[in-house]
Design a protein that fits this description.
Helices cover about 40% and strands about 20% of the residues. It is of the alpha/beta class. The chain has 2 domains: about 160 residues, D-Maltodextrin-Binding Protein, domain 2 (3-Layer(aba) Sandwich), CATH 3.40.190.150; about 100 residues, 3-Layer(aba) Sandwich (D-Maltodextrin-Binding Protein, domain 2), CATH 3.40.190. Strands 1, 2, 3, 4, 5, 6, 7, 8, 9 and 10 form a 10-stranded mixed β-sheet that branches. Helix 2 packs across helix 9.
């Protein structure tokens, strides 16, 4: 009995020691970004990495694993050991959109541990400065009077900007022409060149050209008006219900992360995002700080997953 008691005590001590040893000093914690460098998700990961390292110890590095609309990198994280050494920093796409469009190599509801939605940013309906449309009412009136004439550009089929347009048409009983591109750069080029009529562009991308007077913002998809665009109405206050849309970046890990690791990660993420060196810069770029708890993120994931599934199926949206 004494031996059994001693062994139990030893096992408990080893378990506690293992938990306290995270992050493992002998190897880096890898933040997998399932997209190429340079985008909003990559920016958030590279903003968090040094702050997490500062607050948690160890080494935190960013690894870009792009491909298949973010599902390749996400699948890699799902297949990793649930020890907190491999984490996912991703946008909403691989979490709640891509699984409805392609055969993703993971179950987004069952194979990830949700740690925190870090930030979110709304989309804004923009038109070129030379556009005859001066308001959201102009766009609605035009698309009702001349169905399938006004073009709405997006960064690709199933992207947030595409789905926002589909939601807008559904909620207003209008139609337009979806023009998918491969990324946001070509969308911006053709908007500025008056080759397309409009886009529900992410506010982070649109703001420089809005400030330069080259794009006109007509409506924003946030629940409240943005401090960056205080004179631009929300879709909801314009009478369009259930049209609040955010692009969001979040941190997750493979299912089975130790509870203490999740708790420490969430606390460090929240502290990092609200750091006086970080928060003002993110707000200036159009991000809203969320820093949700694992429980809040889990509920949000389920709600967003169901929401976009309904829209994708009802609108018969297909991947590129």
């Amino acid at each position: 009995m004494k031996i059994k008691h001693w062994l139990c005590m030893l096992a408990t001590a080893l378990t506690l020691g293992s938990a306290q040893a995270w992050p493992d000093a002998s190897r880096a914690v890898t933040l997998v970004v399932p997209f190429p460098p340079g985008g909003s998700t990559d920016l958030i990961a590279r903003t968090l990495a040094p702050k997490l390292q500062e607050k948690l110890g160890g080494r935190f590095v960013v690894d870009n694993k792009a491909g298949a609309t973010g599902t390749i990198g996400t699948g890699q994280v799902v297949r990793s050991a649930a020890d907190g050494q491999t984490l996912l920093v991703s946008s909403l796409g691989p979490f709640v959109i891509a699984p409805h469009l392609i055969r993703a190599p993971y179950d987004a509801l069952k194979e990830l541990d949700y740690i925190s939605v870090a930030v979110q940013a709304p989309n804004v309906l923009v038109v070129p400065a030379a556009s005859p449309h001066k308001s959201l009412a102009d766009v609605i009136a035009f698309t009702r009077a001349q169905p399938n004439k006004m073009t709405f550009a997006s960064s690709g089929n199933g992207s947030s900007d595409h789905l926002t347009a589909e939601l807008f048409w559904q909620q207003t009983g209008t139609t337009g022409i979806h023009v998918p591109y491969k990324g946001g750069g070509p969308v911006m080029n053709d908007l500025l060149g008056n080759q397309v009529d409009s886009s529900f562009m992410n506010i982070n991308t649109a703001m420089p050209q809005i400030l330069a007077g080259k794009l006109r913002p007509l409506a924003i998809t946030s629940a409240r008006r943005s401090g960056l665009l205080p004179n631009v109405p929300t879709l909801e206050e314009s009478g369009i219900k259930e049209a609040n849309v955010y692009s969001w970046q979040a941190v997750a890990g493979p299912r089975g992360l130790p509870a203490d690791v999740k708790a420490r990660l969430h606390a460090a993420i929240a502290s990092s995002l609200n750091d006086p060196q970080v928060r003002p810069k993110l707000l200036e770029l159009g991000f809203e700080i969320v820093a949700s708890t694992p429980e809040q993120f889990t509920a949000y994931q389920a709600a967003e997953f169901a929401r976009w599934k309904r829209l994708i199926e009802s609108r018969n949206i297909k991947a590129d």
